[in-house]
Design a protein that fits this description.
It contains 25 helices and 16 strands. With about 675 residues, the protein is of the alpha/beta class.
Length: about 675
């Protein structure tokens, strides 16, 4: 058996949701200090390049709500009654003027009665309740008032009744009265706990045509009725006292009898007792818009406003345990259109994909964390950005060296005697074909046609990246670029230079080695202190663990050393820097030089004193100084690493902003 349902929008051939953009944004926010859960929420709120976010949907919900309130006013039914009453009085006066056979005294009495009608439409309708209309058109207009009131009152509780009962017969009205009586009996029986499913089924079989919602049980019936009845009550609450009094007085004239209002009052009382959680006491502040609302239409607008309020709460995700699955897509489609529902569904799929992709996991403490898989993906994105920054710089030159043990660089060159690199067969064969195009009789392949695949020189390196985690780094906006730099370098070494060993060292008041996950999740530290001495101790320990590797020391800092580690293990801090703090840092820097370390300082900030200090330290160990902008820090560190492991870095000649552009090529071959 085939099952069909209404198409709910979206492109059925659209590819699966792509979480790459979301993971990049989440990773950036995590490095800025957000928790992964909050970072994910922030991305879902902002949305992506081609994806509307929760904030955009919430804005549209608010605009729709504001438009409903400003576009309408609540005098719709009263205005319709007033128009019908004016028509009836006008037609009656015309008839009185035309009827020459009427007794003059009777005519004068009738004209006086019409002339003295009260200004209130409700009072005027009551006053004319027993009037003997002489004009057929006037009588019909007055009867339309009673019919309109009855249909509006029913439309308040049962959507569509106003249209369904237009031109209704007495039999139709009797059927409605019977339905109301049966409904009240069913609800009262349910309140006593005496109803059965058979009672509900019997009621629906008899009166189901009046319930387009097609409820499947009495609870669904109650929910639908109570929501609309509560909206009707909120509409009355939103009216002025004079408007409410007019409508209450007019309601007794519905269908020419107070019986309908008595049944509806009974229904409202039953619904209030069975569904007390509905908003029966709320109200709205409508403007003076051009469109007047009748009782039924106004109730529908109040239901729309309630739906919009519920959607605003769902889209805010501001309550405990909030998930995007909470967003009611049917309500969203009704209020904002199918496109909005499609956008929300994409966000739901994105949230589900993020949670199920293995990009985030909960630790032992219950907190959500980025997994190594997510860190690798974020690192690759940062590395691509670094490659773009490096390749976009001017004055770069290629310093690749061929070496049998290296990785393929992607470039080729003509074979030379003694080369051991592998042949590049496609390029070699193409050279032969091109040569024979001008010399068809020549050999199929010549030694001059041969090109070999160029490789990168490979020497194992022990890399120590020392990053300043002091107060000033956070204060001056260098915290996130520092972490991005560490992650990019970690990704490069882990993916392309796996023989190298990287040690990440953070140094503030004291220093510590960190895993990349710890560093990227590190909150900004507001304790003062720059313990370069402790960081160099840890870096030299790392170098000694790898005696056969080339030591590479990379130091990122924005301040002079202001603390050091004493023999007791305590941290000594003072500002301005103490001579002993400087001496101990210099001693460990000398030790790094004796171990053969190629040292590069990355100076952040424009402080002249810091510049003089860093320059003197670099000259002492024949190192280099680079002063990049915060956004270029990643490119500077990665470029320095690539240059130093190829023997291209070092020496004071490399000092100065932008000089790292001469240490690496522009092809970004190491990004993959």
């Amino acid at each position: 058996m085939s099952r069909y349902r209404r198409y709910d929008g979206g492109d059925p051939l659209a590819p699966p949701v792509d979480i790459a953009e979301a993971l990049d944004a989440i990773g950036q926010d995590v490095m800025a200090g957000y928790s992964p859960e909050r970072a994910m929420r922030e991305f879902l709120r902002r949305g992506g390049a081609d994806q509307a976010g929760l904030d955009d949907l919430a804005r549209r919900v608010a605009e729709r709500r504001r438009d409903l309130l400003q576009r309408h006013h609540l005098d719709g039914t009263l205005n319709e009654v007033r128009e019908l009453l004016d028509r009836a009085v006008l037609e009656e006066r015309k008839q009185l003027a035309r009827d020459a056979m009427m007794d003059d005294g009777d005519r004068a009495f009738r004209e006086m009665r019409l002339q003295s009608l009260p200004d209130s439409p409700a009072a005027a309708v009551t006053e004319l309740g027993d009037y003997d209309w002489q004009s057929r058109e006037a009588r019909e207009a007055f009867e339309q008032i009673k019919d309109l009131l009855g249909r509006e009152l029913l439309d308040q509780r049962f959507a569509g009744m106003k249209q369904a009962l237009e031109n209704a017969t007495d039999e139709d009205r009797q059927a409605i009265s019977e339905m109301l009586g049966d409904l009240n009996e069913l609800l009262e029986k349910h309140a006593r706990g005496e109803d059965t499913p058979e009672d509900f089924a019997e009621f629906m079989a008899k009166h189901g045509q009046h319930f387009p919602e097609n409820p499947q049980d009495i609870d669904e019936l109650l929910d639908a009725l109570a929501q609309r009845s509560a909206a009707a009550q909120r509409m009355l609450n939103s009216m002025s006292a004079e408007q409410r009094a007019e409508l209450m007085q007019l309601s007794t004239q519905a269908f020419g009898s107070p019986a309908l209002m008595e049944q509806l009052d009974r229904l409202d009382a039953n619904l209030m007792s069975l569904r007390p959680g509905e908003d029966w006491g709320g109200s709205e502040q409508f403007g003076d818009g051009e469109q007047g609302l009748g009782l039924g239409d106004g109730t529908g607008v109040l239901q729309d406003l309630a739906d919009l309020d519920a959607l605003a709460d769902q889209l805010s995700q501001g309550y405990g345990g909030a998930r995007l699955d909470d967003v009611d897509l049917d309500k969203l489609a009704r209020q904002l259109g199918t496109e909005a529902a499609v956008d929300a569904r994409k966000l739901q799929e994105l949230e589900k994909a993020l949670r199920e992709s293995g990009a985030m996991e909960r630790g032992f403490d219950g907190e959500l964390r980025l997994t190594p898989k997510a860190m690798r993906q974020l690192g690759r994105a940062l590395l691509r950005d670094v490659a773009q920054r490096m390749s976009g710089r001017q004055g770069q030159r290629d310093v690749r060296q061929a070496g049998a043990a290296g990785d393929l660089s992607g470039a080729t060159r003509a074979w030379q005697f003694g080369d051991t690199e592998p042949w590049d067969l496609p390029r070699t064969m193409l050279n032969g074909v091109l040569r024979r195009a001008g010399d068809p009789g020549g050999p199929l392949l010549s030694i001059d046609d041969v090109e070999v695949a160029e490789t990168e020189a490979r020497t194992q390196a022990a890399v120590a990246l020392c990053v300043d985690t002091s107060f000033s780094m956070a204060m001056d906006g260098r915290w996130v670029p520092m972490k991005q730099t560490a992650l990019a370098l970690h990704t490069l070494i882990g993916s392309r230079f796996r023989g190298d060993s990287l040690e990440l060292i953070g140094f503030g008041r004291h220093a510590q080695t960190m895993r990349i996950e710890e560093l990227t999740a590190l909150d900004a530290r507001w304790a003062k202190g720059t313990n370069l001495h402790h960081a160099l101790l840890l870096a030299n320990r790392h170098f000694r663990k790898h005696p056969n590797a080339q030591p590479v020391l990379l130091i990122v800092t924005d301040g002079e050393p202001t603390s050091h580690l004493e023999s007791s293990g305590d941290v000594f801090f003072t500002y301005p820097p103490h001579p002993m703090t400087i001496a101990l840092a210099v001693r460990e820097l000398d030790n790094a030089r004796r171990l053969g370390a190629q040292t590069t300082f990355f100076r952040l900030g424009e402080d002249p004193g810091l510049a003089r200090f860093i320059d003197s330290m670099a000259r002492r160990v024949e190192g280099a100084v680079i002063a990049p902008e915060a956004g270029d820090l990643g490119a500077a560190v990665v470029g320095s690493y690539l240059g130093s492991r190829r023997g291209g870095a070092g020496g004071p000649g490399g000092s100065g902003p932008g000089s790292y552009g001469d240490w690496f090529g522009s092809r970004g071959f190491w990004v993959g």
